[in-house]
Specification:
By secondary structure, the protein is α+β, with helices and mostly antiparallel strands. The protein is built from 14 helices and 51 strands. The strands form twelve sheets. The chain has an eight-stranded antiparallel β-sheet with strand order 9-10-11-12-19-16-15-14. Helix 5 packs across helix 6 and helix 6 packs antiparallel against helix 7. The protein is globular and about 85 Å long. The two termini are about 35 Å apart.
Length: about 900
């Protein structure tokens, strides 16, 4: 998985220790042209590709039959195809819902995790897999498992060993395991005391661990001890919602699912996105076809297709059973925009000054080098271009568009031997990796939808002003390559798997490429996933590619329904009793976590599902009450109003209560890396003037918004076409929108934001980076000033710590070699008459994937009570520095302070340059 910073595994038991080994390969030799852009066919020298936890390269575990097919990664079942751990050839727990699975030498472990446990001091809930039974073949002892087939939400693992084979088909919502056996009798072994409550020819009903199962075979079952066997070449095992469902399941027991597919469409006239989920079946015995499918909450709430009275429990709430091979969901699309309209009350001089502050910075890119941080910078600068255009600051607009366009052009062009700022295609794993990479986007194929979405969104803004640049003949073709790598929507595209990151049935993306966790796969920043969908809609609309646009609308509407339920629990029907949080930072296959990969700070736990704030963020308006609840919970956990990511959190608040947000904003808030003061002020004042999202009204174009204040509506629409368009709204209103423009009309005013003009071809924009020296406050006589920077190398005692020269700002030394059980003592830290309530440290980490830990503050001894802590993992290198804050218990007077380091892995995980305290 991934996030905007280094990540700590939410479930330590699921993460294995890893040691990074750099894979050295020859420099890029060739580049494949795509329009005017290109991508490399080999990685740059010294760069890494998909690897196991030891850093060794891995290849897909597929059978000969599947060789040459684009390999799915980032799936709920990806640990089957990607051997993450050298000693485990069987994969990790698989959460298909309602069933769960784990491959083993004897076959497929099957379970039904339907009881939630609230763990980690109430910060997580989990429904972990437990083997109730094993599906296999008598005598099977396979040395591993390979993948012999897949479809949109099913997978077919294959076991081979000792002259025996087992092939199983399992999937989301599929309450059956369809099995095929050779070389021995079909075998189902019970992993706990079993009660047989029905035994008729070919049908066995059995209860294990309180769960009801049915075994179906063309031949009779023989029960002996803790197993049942049958002389059958094929058989099924079903999870029953209750014993009285046996007859219904027997009807479909031999109708094997051979394929699953999702298809979608968008009706502009009704603003409705429809998706059909179809299972293809074949009758292995008799003539019955069709199947049973368990629908997730986000599905059954949005379909008119009938479901049965049968129910299952899952980490996603109640699942409802449907009889039939297909069903269709229908959802209204609430629209996206390149930018909100300019408020008639906004201070345009202030906006101009704040834009200039960004333009005239020594480094407008803020040191961004890798795909993720470059993407955030592209988003920040392109947002400013739209605001500059609205206030008539065309010179600033043109500089910003040129900067964004030229940096995109650089990244979208590969040359032989180039070390950075390009994409390279990995034909082994059928993926496009940007270098420099970050957060495992290379070794683990994490987060491509997060990273690349920013590029696509920025390109959509450029396309408004320079449509020729965005054409397929120029750089639009490479932008669409980025879309297809992360979420390929074109089934005829053979270079990428279909919807790599997006789980069509589960309704969400998965962040981890390998899914090598006991809790399954995971997704943290649902809002960055929505940013990707927004980008696909806007780029498709701007370039006239309706196929891309409609795919983006499908991703957007489906995720909106899933996010409201599974991240925000908007109906209070998903999170289990005892989990006393109204939101989660991370969704796992097995549950959810009120946390992030890198910190337990409530502001970032909440904020990671808010950022980035874009013209596609108005989907949150579907749960305004939950926005207010979300903010209240965050402030309560934080002990006061937000101090980090204040701009993002305040913009999020504005979607429900813009007046409160504007009052909180005041003279300006320190922006998050992907945001700016100008954008935050523009967003908040716009919503305060025109109102909050009104999703009851739709429009005849997908690029629109309806805002309402005191019952009065403002209508907004973007028209990328070359002629004026009349947009119709479902409440009978119309809006005339000039070509290449956004227009708005409402009680608080009307206006037009032209997307055309300026930006003639220019040479690449260059910037100069300067270094600022930080002065460290001298320790007061007799002690150290708690509220000044305390150099870590000035310790008075230590265990397992050494010093080294740092390349961080200001130079000097840092402490290093910091791992589990190490500590450093700093005597006489003087808080004077003030009270310290915050702790901040300057840290860096080059730890391998999966290696992370806690930096802690204690007093009195290295084993004293932990007063404050934060989590840290790889920051990009042992001299790649980040300043990380954390709240802590109050400290006063003069204290002997210990920095202690705790990790679940033996490897070193962090360096520290300095630390300080705050009030």
């Amino acid at each position: 998985m991934r996030s905007t910073r280094p990540r700590l595994a939410a479930f330590a038991a699921a993460v294995a220790a890893a040691t990074a080994i750099t894979l050295i390969i020859p420099p890029a030799a060739n580049a494949v042209t795509v329009g005017a852009g290109s991508y490399a066919t080999e990685r740059p020298a010294g760069a890494a590709g998909p690897s196991n936890s030891d850093g060794a390269p891995v290849t897909p575990k597929v059978t000969a039959r599947m060789a040459g097919q684009p390999v799915p990664t980032n799936e709920w079942w990806s640990s089957l195809v990607w051997q993450r751990y050298a000693g485990n050839p069987y994969g990790e727990n698989l959460y298909a819902h309602p069933m769960s699975f784990h491959a083993q030498a004897q076959g497929l472990g099957v379970g039904y995790p339907n009881t939630a446990a609230v763990v980690s001091n109430g910060t997580a809930y989990e429904m972990l897999h437990r083997d109730d039974l094993f599906v296999g073949v008598a005598g099977l002892n396979a040395p591993g498992v390979a993948v012999d087939g897949w479809s949109d939400w099913t997978v077919s693992p294959l076991w081979t060993g000792g002259g025996r084979t087992l092939r199983a088909t399992i999937g989301h919502g599929l309450p059956f395991v369809h099995a095929e056996a050779t070389g021995g009798n079909a075998r189902v072994a019970f992993n706990a005391a079993a009660t047989v409550w029905s035994n008729t020819p070919g049908v066995l009903g059995v209860t294990i661990n309180g769960h009801e199962y049915a075994l179906f075979s063309p031949s009779a079952w023989t029960v002996s001890g803790s197993e049942a066997t049958s002389a059958a070449a094929f058989f099924s095992v079903a999870l029953l919602p209750s014993r009285d469902a046996l007859a219904l399941f027997q009807k479909y027991a031999f109708s094997f699912v051979t394929d699953t597919k999702v298809s979608w469409s968008y009706n502009a006239g009704t603003a409705q996105s429809s998706a059909t989920y179809s299972a293809t079946t074949v009758a292995r015995q008799g003539t019955q076809t069709g199947t049973l499918q368990a629908l997730y909450r986000h599905q059954w709430l949005n379909t008119t297709d009938a479901v049965t009275a049968h129910r299952y429990t899952s980490p996603r709430g109640e699942m409802r059973l449907r009889e039939g091979g297909s069903f269709t969901t229908r959802q209204a699309f609430s629209g996206v925009l390149p930018a909100l309209p300019l408020s008639s009350q906004a201070d345009t001089t202030r906006l101009r000054n704040e834009i200039d502050a960004e333009l005239n910075a020594a480094d407008p890119w803020k040191g961004a080098t890798d795909t993720y941080w470059t993407g955030k910078a592209l988003n920040r600068l392109s947002n400013l271009a739209r605001i500059a255009n609205q206030i008539g600051y065309t010179a600033g607009r043109d500089r910003l568009i040129a900067m964004v366009r030229d940096r995109l052009t650089d990244w979208l062009t590969a040359t032989p031997g180039e070390a950075g700022r390009h994409f390279a295609y990995d034909s082994t794993w059928d993926t496009l990796i940007g270098y420099p990479a970050s957060f495992g986007s290379d070794r683990e194929l994490n987060d491509h939808h997060f990273h690349y979405g920013y590029y696509i969104l920025a390109a959509a803004i450029v396309a408004q002003h320079d449509p020729a640049w965005a054409s397929d003949a120029r750089y639009g073709g490479m932008i669409k390559m980025l879309v297809k790598d992360a979420n390929n929507y074109d089934r005829s595209e053979s270079r990428f798997p279909f919807l790599r990151s997006f789980d069509a049935y589960a309704g969400q993306n998965w962040a981890s490429g390998h899914a090598g966790f006991a809790h399954g796969n995971n997704e943290e920043s649902s809002s960055e996933s929505m940013m990707f969908a927004t980008a696909a809609v806007l780029f498709g609309q701007a370039t006239g590619d309706n196929t891309l646009r409609d795919a983006g609308i499908y991703l957007y509407t489906t995720q909106q329904a899933a996010i409201g339920q599974y991240w925000f629990n908007k109906d209070n029907a998903v999170f289990p009793a005892g989990f006393n949080h109204g939101t989660v930072g991370i969704v796992w296959g097995a549950g959810g976590t009120y946390g992030t990969w890198w910190t337990a700070n409530p502001e970032e736990i909440h904020g990671i599902n808010m950022l980035p704030i874009t013209g596609g963020s108005l989907y949150h308006g579907a749960w305004k009450a939950d926005i207010l609840q979300n903010i209240a919970e965050m402030r309560a956990a934080n002990g006061g109003t937000e101090v980090e990511w204040k701009d993002v959190i305040t913009e999020f608040l504005a979607i429900a209560d813009p007046a409160q947000a504007l009052a909180n904003y005041g003279g300006g808030l320190e922006p998050e890396a992907g945001d700016s003061r100008a954008h935050a002020y523009h967003w908040i004042t716009s919503l305060n003037t025109y109102g909050t999202p009104d999703h009851s009204v739709t429009a005849s174009v997908p690029t629109y918004a309806v805002l309402a204040k005191n019952g009065a509506r403002t209508y907004v629409a973007y028209n990328p076409g070359t002629t004026t368009a009349t947009v119709s709204f479902s409440d009978g209103q119309t809006l005339s929108v000039p070509a290449s423009s956004t227009a708005w009309r409402g009680p608080a005013g009307s206006g037009t934001d032209s997307g055309s003009g300026g930006v003639n071809p220019t040479s690449p924009t260059t910037t100069t980076t300067t270094t600022t020296t930080t002065t460290t406050t001298t320790n007061p006589p007799g002690g150290r000033n708690a509220f000044a920077s305390i150099q870590a190398e000035s310790f008075d005692g230590q265990s397992g710590v050494f010093t080294e020269t740092t390349t961080d700002t200001g130079g000097g030394q840092n402490i290093a070699g910091l791992g589990n059980g190490n500590w450093a003592l700093f005597r006489g830290v003087d808080f004077g008459s003030a009270t310290g309530r915050q702790f901040t440290a300057r840290v860096a980490s080059g730890a391998a994937g999966g290696v992370s830990g806690l930096v802690e503050v204690r007093t009195g001894s290295p084993t004293g009570t932990v007063l404050g802590s934060f989590a840290v993992g790889n920051t990009g290198g042992w001299q790649s520095w980040r300043t990380v804050p954390a709240n802590m218990s109050p400290l006063t007077g003069k204290q002997d302070v210990y920095l202690t380091f705790t990790s679940g892995q033996p490897a070193d995980f962090v360096n520290v340059n300095w630390f300080s305290f705050g009030q």
